[in-house]
Amino acid sequence: MEKFVTLNGLVAPLDRPNVDTDAIIPKQFLKSIKRSGFGPNLFDEWRYLDRGEPGMDNSNRPLNPDFVLNQARYQGVSVLLGRDNFGCGSSREHAPWALEDFGFRSVIAPSFADIFYNNCFKNGILPIVLSAAIVDQLFKETEASEGYMLNIDLQAQTVTTPNGESFGFEVDAFRKYCLLNGLDDIGLTLQHVDDIKAYEVKRKTATPWLFR
Amino acid sequence: MAGKTLYDKLWDAHVVRQNDDGSCLIYIDRQLVHEVTSPQAFEGLRMAGRKLWRVDANLATPDHNVPTTGQAAGVEGIVDPTSKLQVQTLDSNCDFFGVTEFKMNDPRQGIVHVVGPEQGATLPGMTVVCGDSHTSTHGALGALAHGIGTSEVEHVMATQCLIQKKSKNMLVRVNGHVGPGVDAKDIVLAIIGKIGTAGGTGYAIEFAGEAITDLSIEGRMTVCNMAIEAGARAGMVAVDDKTIDYVKGRPYAPSADQWDAAVANWADLHSDADAVFDTVVELNAADIQPQVTWGTSPEMVVSVDDKVPNPANERDAVKRTGMEKALAYMGLQADTPIREIAIDKVFIGSCTNSRIEDIRAAAAVAKGRKVAANVKLAMVVPGSGLVKQQAEAEGLDKILVEAGFEWREPGCSMCLAMNADRLEPGERCASTSNRNFEGRQGMGGRTHLVGPAMAAAAAIAGHFTDVRHLN
Ligand code: SF4
């Protein structure tokens, strides 16, 4: 997994609540057995005017000019600004895979759905919760000034606007540690093999019917 | 000291170790596996040279991609090459790693969340995970069950554990009894309408109250299934006699010599009388009417007697825009009576409503009636091969076919339209599934979520109608 330490990134606003993982990456692309290559189909149904299918040449497809990520000023974005309950719905990790493949490294919203939030950390994406009022302010500023960038510092847990205004955010210590160091948690968990084995012995005695 | 909630008990029983920041390593008793969210996990294991920690804790079946006709041909019968490859990949991974899999032509194959309880593979007191958000379904048995992403699927395969932070406790109590013709789906849609799709975020929800204990285990699964639609990763119901009766005799249930010890162990799987919840939500069952969603989020729901709401009455600007976008997508005018909305297709199935009780409810409505002429397709998709067999043994398939429904083979089908069953742009569907998101049942398709009896009634009438007053 790629580390996340600091990011100074162009911001794109996606102004709707309840953006679900079906919208982030529609189901037909979930047929892939790979982890990569989902970026061209990120937000497929909003981004293109035709119906997308796996294996199509996306460069020839008609783009929806109204969709935010198709606008010239948002080319090269790495920070996505969203509204409440971002990433709700299906647990598909293809959603963060698609965001990451497209170039996003951080999503800022007033609230996230649990599974999506969790999946982001496994893929080097930092999801940041800021209050609805602050997010609203960031929406206004992003829309008002072309080339609007935010500076995100995971170590300091801050988001800083171009005029120097800074907002703190919360993140679990363990997740922060993994993201800062680009660590995969299977390796970390396997440091506790003895604990797992000891637990299993106890459990086998207490509830043997679970081991058959 | 205050007593423990059911969630506290399930959690505490599975803590392997606690980390400094309060996150825990939680032991997982059962992992269910399907073809969509597992290939990258298996690949990760292979690349790292790892094996499954406990092969017998995993159970697999393909469901999302399988066609709902011609399953006897097995995987070779899948026309779409990418779908076929995904199912073949599951087959070969399960063979390679030694995981038990109910393959396509096995009568036990079906939707993972129908198959698990049906086999007794998900049991009271277990922790259950699957790379699928509707894993919350299994909480109906008094288990701690939730969906996970593919990285976590791999983590569980490799370590039998998950790293988790404990959620907060929410109690949703539905007091009193629902009226005739109101089912589990109506109850859970009413709950989501009340607390919203983010209302349960960060919580594990326990469903309780007479209206919940009145439900069969199947009905409780319908309720817990949609806990995720209320934002909660896990939903659960305390164990009672119905739970024990349901589990008894199933293939993976405790054997005779362990049965009494298991039942004794399960007796504690309820919240203590003095347990404290972080949030308590109460509903009055008598107020719940048959529900129909009108928008593109399950919280956009009203009673069948109501009208499509008017965004002009919404003060919150973000919500108002959301409503306007939803109405535009759904092709609906504000203030239209729900009963005047005509439909093109009907889908009865999905892990929410494809168990035998759901098929019976649909057949009871269909009996002696005909699907309306304007309905292009009304399909019934049983949740597993065994549900299908049971329904056929009861003659339900004949009743449905006689009425003009199509009787299909088991799978997820038009719940998410990864196989050939889908809506075309602009088509409107009465669906017993769980998500009415844009494009969920096919690009441009319009989904209205309802219970199985209401879906069958809509098929007969050609538009939404109160199943309690169907002619
Ligand atoms: S039936 Fe629908 S919701 Fe359930 S597992 Fe299948 S696709 Fe997911």
What does this structure look like?
The complex is a heterodimer of chains A (212) and B (471). By secondary structure, chain A is of the alpha/beta class. Chain A has eight helices and seven strands. Chain A has helices spanning 21-24, 44-47, 94-102, 114-121, 132-144, 173-181, 185-189, 193-206, and strands spanning 6-13, 79-81, 106-109, 126-129, 149-153, 158-160, 166-168. The longest helix of chain A is centred in the last third of the chain and has 14 residues, at 193-206. Chain B contains 15 helices and 19 strands. Chain B has helices at 6-12, 39-48, 81-97, 112-119, 150-159, 184-195, 210-213, 217-225, 241-247, 256-266, 317-330, 356-366, 385-393, 396-403, 452-461; strands spanning 15-18, 24-27, 30-33, 58-60, 100-101, 127-130, 144-147, 161-164, 168-175, 203-208, 234-236, 279-284, 291-293, 301-303, 345-348, 377-380, 406-407, 428-431, 446-449. A five-stranded parallel sheet of chain B has the order 5-4-3-6-7, sandwiched between helices. A five-stranded parallel sheet of chain B has the order 17-16-15-18-19. A four-stranded parallel sheet of chain B has the order 11-10-9-12. In chain B, a hairpin with a 5-residue loop joins β1 (15-18) and β2. The longest helix of chain B has 17 residues, at 81-97. The model of chain B has no long low-confidence stretch (mean pLDDT 97). The complex binds iron/sulfur cluster (SF4). Iron/sulfur cluster is lined by residues 63-64, 111, 113, 132, 134, 350-351, 412, 415-416, 433-434 of chain B.
Key attributes of the depicted protein:
heterodimer, A: 212 residues, alpha/beta, seven-stranded mixed sheet, 7 strands, 31% helix, 14% strand, B: 471 residues, 19 strands, binds iron/sulfur cluster
The low-confidence runs of chain A, each spanning 5 or more residues with pLDDT under 50, are: none
What's the multimeric state?
heterodimer
* Class of secondary structure makeup of chain A: alpha/beta
Small molecules in complex: iron/sulfur cluster
Overall pLDDT level of chain A: 96
Distance, first to last CA of chain A: 35 Å
Sheet-strand content of chain A, in percent, reads 5-15%
| Gyration radius from CA atoms of chain B, angstroms | 21 Å
Structural shape of chain B: globular
Please mark out the parts of chain B with pLDDT under 50 across 5 or more consecutive residues, or reply none: none
Rg over CA atoms of chain A? 19 Å
Largest sheet of chain B: 5 strands, parallel
* Strand element count of chain B: 19
What is the H-and-E element order of chain A?
EHHEHEHEHEEEHHH
Strand content of chain B: 15-25%
Helix content of chain A: 25-40%
Sheet with the most strands: spatial strand order of chain B: 5-4-3-6-7
Query: Structural class given helices, strands, pairing of chain B?
Result: alpha/beta
